[in-house]
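Team,

Forwarding the record for the chain on the shared tracking sheet. I've put the sequence and predicted structure together so nobody has to dig through attachments.
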Amino acid sequence: METLLVTPPETVKLTAHSAPHYIFQRTTYEAPRQYVYAIENAVIEFQHRPGNRSSFRISQSLFNHASDARFDEIAFIDDKYTKFNICHFLFDKLTRLMLLKKAGILPKAVLLFSRNKYTHYWINQVLGYTPRYIVRDKGTISTKVLYVVSSSFHLRHPGNFMPADIVDALSALGGSSPAHKALYISREDEATRNVLNEDSIGEIEKVRAQDITPSAQRDLFNECSVLVGPHGAGLANLLFMPRGSTVIEILPPYYGTAAFYIAAERLGHRYVPIVACDPTDGVGASPKEWTHDSTYNRRHMIADPRAVADAVSEALSRSGEAAKRPQITGELDGRTLRGIIAADH
């Protein structure tokens, strides 16, 4: 096994936030070393597991190992998360390909556990050509040379492994000219973390990123200076915004990760958190004192329309547009809260 590239570790200072949420207990972010390896006579065995996860093992074989297919050269850029998620793809899988390219590797074939229009578009954009796509969810493959990045085996939350030069490469995907537009990423059709009263938030253009082609998605967010949305993969579109834009994340009080907080900071954006209300009674804990518990991931939430409108108005004024406060259509008082909860059940 040959080590082709090692990125230096980094300690990144994060902007302090007083928002009552446990993810803001940290004040620094540690970006660990990453290693790019070339493994000769490699065998990769993999299998899809329940829960949209995969297990895989890489070994070396000096003999003809029984396999489903044999190749001369493969770049493996995937990890244990097999269900496609634009956030995991852009911040983790695509950045591995960028590291391979930095190491001088332009692979003939790319191995993924799943693919769609986004994987093809962005891999082709980064490489500048169309590689052979090997897409399998189980099996055994052997190859004369396998290129792999260490983060495939030690994955944190999305974007937690971005070294500085890869951050610069990602920033190059964003818009370069000043933008003056606010967009709201909706999760209204999702099974988790939907903002139940998003129609009360105001006159902000609502988009569903999954309904847009990759190139149109990039163009749309290149012109966005204020991105608003609940915690979820759609916020990964902050990647395409001009540097210095504002990201307003609506956080569920009892679930969340610092992924978009870290990504926004590293890409030069201003990050504004708004902690929502949980529509389920009986939790009985402060979100500031809470600890990460994925069992709360599937809860919906209720946002304060006034807090969102104020944050958008301030952000637009920072971007150079005359402060135009979105017209809110509701207030978050006890009566409204009870009505929203009743409608959701």
